[in-house]
Amino acid sequence: MTEVFFYHGATDKVAAACALLGGAYAQKKPMLVYTPDGELANNLDRQLWMQTALSFVPHCRADSPLANETPVLLTDNLEQPAQTERLMNLGHATPPGFERFQRLIEVVGQAEEDRHAARTRVKFYKDKGCDVHYFDLSKR
Q1: What is the DSSP secondary structure assignment for residue 55, as one 8-state letter?
Q2: Is the pTM for the entire model greater than 0.85?
Q3: Within a 10 A sphere around the Cβ of 98, how many other Cβ atoms?
Q4: In a domain? residue 10
Q5: Secondary element (H or E) of residue 121
């Protein structure tokens, strides 16, 4: 069963995602990042490239020739996931096939639209029997 972690209350959703990806990379944990919104994916990619040299997170698109060698992959398509250990969702909808992953990380901003969509996903995951954990980023 997929374990779901909601990181909510982020003042900057992309910055929060970058910090979480940096932590996962430091622990040598691969991550597939589901970004169905192309503009958001480009923003995340830019932010990851702008990290300092000591906090740089190697990443690329999941369809890149370098994907097999890269710990963080960005994708808008989960039909053939590169790995099924960890998935980060930056979309508003439940990621298709999420149950294939051991862990699902949800990053939620403070915008009402983001919060409302997250509440819907929480209910969905709980109804499916997933363990759901919460971390409030607004208090950091």
Answers
A1: G
A2: yes
A3: 20
A4: no
A5: helix 112-127
3, 125, 24, 36 alpha-carbon torsion, rounded to 10°: 150
Residue 96: in which H helix or E strand, if any?
A: none
- The stretch 62-80 carries a mean pLDDT of 93
User: Is residue 118 a contact partner of residue 6, using CB atoms and an 8 Å limit?
Assistant: yes
Q: Which two tokens stand for residue 70?
A: 């890269």
Nearest to 13 by CA among 121, 100, 37: 37
Question: Strand (E) positions, 2-69?
Answer: 3-10, 31-34, 59-61
How many Å apart are CA 50 and CA 64, to the nearest integer? 20
Cα–Cα distance for residue pair 76/81, rounded to 1 Å: 10
Domains in the chain, number: 1
Residue 125, class by beta-carbon neighbours within 10 Å (0-12 exposed, 13-18 middle, 19+ buried)? buried
Q: For residue 57, tell me if it sits in a domain.
A: yes
Helix and strand counts by DSSP (H, E) for the chain: 3, 7
Nearest C-alpha neighbor of 18 from the set 40, 3, 39: 40
Two tokens at 104? 């699902």
CATH number of the domain enclosing 101: 3.40.50.10110
pLDDT band at 82 (very low <50, low <70, confident <90, very high): confident
